[in-house]
Amino acid sequence: MAITFVGRLLNNLCATPKCNIGVVNQFVVQTRDYAARKGTRARREAKKVKRKIEKIEKLGFVERKLKESQAKLNKSIIKRRVDDDKYKTIPTDNVWLLCRHRKKVYTIEEAVQCHRETHHPTLLNCPNSKVNAKIELNLETEKKGKLIGAFTRIIDYPHCFGHEETRNIIAFSSKQQVIEKALKAGATLAGGKDLIKSIKAGDLALLEYQYCLAEPDILADLILIRGLLKKKFPTSKAGTLSPDLENLVKKFVLGIKYNAVPEKLEKNYGLIECPIGTLDMDSKHLEENFAALINDINSVKSKKHTNFIIRTQLLSPPTKEYFIVDFTQYLPKEIPKKDQTVEEGLMGNEEEEEEEEDISHAVIPSQ
């Protein structure tokens, strides 16, 4: 007790604040009060700020092992984004090894016919099975390190077929005639300002409705319930805002939904699997549906983004057999910049010739 008392007394009687000597439990503890380093307070305050917690992806045992080995070797193991098939030789015979030669590319009609043969009543007995299109994407953009995230879209095929889903759709419009047309088109519920007030009061729950569609005229009133709608709030980017509400409702009622999901390990590789019809449909109708799907997916990419779609395949459950299909002929044709400048020059020359012709036919009055 005496030693601790003497130590405290020495600390109190110390004349210089920069050097304090304390004796506690027979140990001499020396503390110096120096000025703090530059930025320590800022770092201390930054630790208190709540940081965003990144979600940890649930990986399987095999995927986790691949990721660990990938981190050790500092190189990517899975490169499905790269088309290795183009480096292989073209087969010259009617029998070849698939691992050493290029795979055969089919047309839509040929691929559908091959599936019909295996799904014949004498074999698998599935003549009405669905035809799925498996599309591989390159999610890289023109900016380094920036990738296209996962997206969900609904496509309205030119030749509809059943999607076997129950969709509850709520539609908003300021015009009574448009509300009646939306209900006839298949909307579960439609209304205007009165419906917005009932939702704001809590009389109607929005959890039952998967999609919320609206016209641009009523968008100012919808801002009142934006916090309740959250991600369902109608926007032109999501395709839920349009002046033609009737056709928009028909699209969401009869359309087919598809998801673009990035790979867990290879973030720049995405995959879409979407049905384009059934085997009992006409081959031309299936081809038109496939072309509509390719154009809809291609509209997601930016103008400068090239090679967005890598490969396309056609599958038909219950078999796992697939046929590679050529999709390039269904992409929209882009006019090069040189051709555009030439066309503009030709248009300018035509306009000048027309002006000269008008001047030649003009009558100059005599003085």
From TrEMBL:
* Provenance organism: Vespula vulgaris
CDD domains the record matches:
Ribosomal_L1
Which Pfam families does UniProt cross-reference here? Ribosomal_L1
Can you name a GO cellular component term?
ribosome
* Cytoplasm in keyword set: no
> Per its UniProt record, what Gene3D superfamilies does this chain match?
3.30.190.20, 3.40.50.790
Question: Under which name does UniProt file this protein?
Answer: 39S ribosomal protein L1, mitochondrial
Q: Give the top-rank taxon of the lineage listed in the UniProt record for this protein.
A: Eukaryota
> Which keywords label this protein?
Ribonucleoprotein, Ribosomal protein
Q: Known SUPFAM superfamilies for this protein?
A: Ribosomal protein L1
Q: Source organism lineage?
A: Eukaryota, Metazoa, Ecdysozoa, Arthropoda, Hexapoda
